[in-house]
Design a protein that fits this description.
- 6% of the residues lie in helices and 42% in strands.
- The longest helix is centred in the first third of the chain and has 9 residues.
- A six-stranded antiparallel β-sheet has the order 1-2-3-10-5-8, with no helix packed on it. A three-stranded antiparallel β-sheet has the order 7-6-9, with no helix packed on it. It has a two-stranded antiparallel ribbon with strand order 4-11.
- It is mainly beta.
């Protein structure tokens, strides 16, 4: 008798890999407004897997900040790897540093700023996966 596991059946049914290994530094890189860099580590539009979320590594240089924005239907988790900064969520600000994990519910306006002398580096997990049409950017007042 041949035993077939659920993972084997899933791989055959969907013709998708069950494991995906990538180097973040070799992934698609986007330079976003404000001059920060986003490495799209895992995203269903770029990869042969759809885990129900996307993962990006974000690099924010000293004195730089992300653009104030909100994701209408996606939640986000930030995990801070290096550097120091401030994360603004709605009317509240949080000092962020390595080892901090932050959950942000859908629909909340937010932005991060690097207050340190080195890059602020963090992982951003978005669920469901990030989509341009789901993001609303607040334009700076002139």
């Amino acid at each position: 008798m041949l035993a077939v596991g659920a993972a084997d059946l899933a791989a055959q049914e969907f013709n998708a890999p069950l494991v995906l290994v990538k180097k973040a530094d070799s992934c698609r890189v986007v330079t976003a407004g404000g001059g920060f860099t986003v490495h799209e580590v895992i995203h269903p539009k770029n990869d042969s897997v759809n885990p129900g979320f996307s993962i990006a590594k974000v690099l924010l240089g000293p004195g730089k900040s992300t653009v104030p924005h909100r994701l209408k239907t996606s939640a986000q988790v930030y995990y801070i790897l290096k550097g120091k900064g401030i994360l603004h969520v709605e009317d509240t600000s949080f000092v962020i540093e390595p080892g901090d994990a932050i959950y942000i519910a859908p629909g909340l306006f937010q932005w991060a700023e690097n207050t340190g002398k080195t890059d602020l580096e963090f992982i951003c997990v978005v669920s469901p996966p990030w989509r341009a049409y789901d993001e609303e950017v607040i334009e700076p007042k002139k």
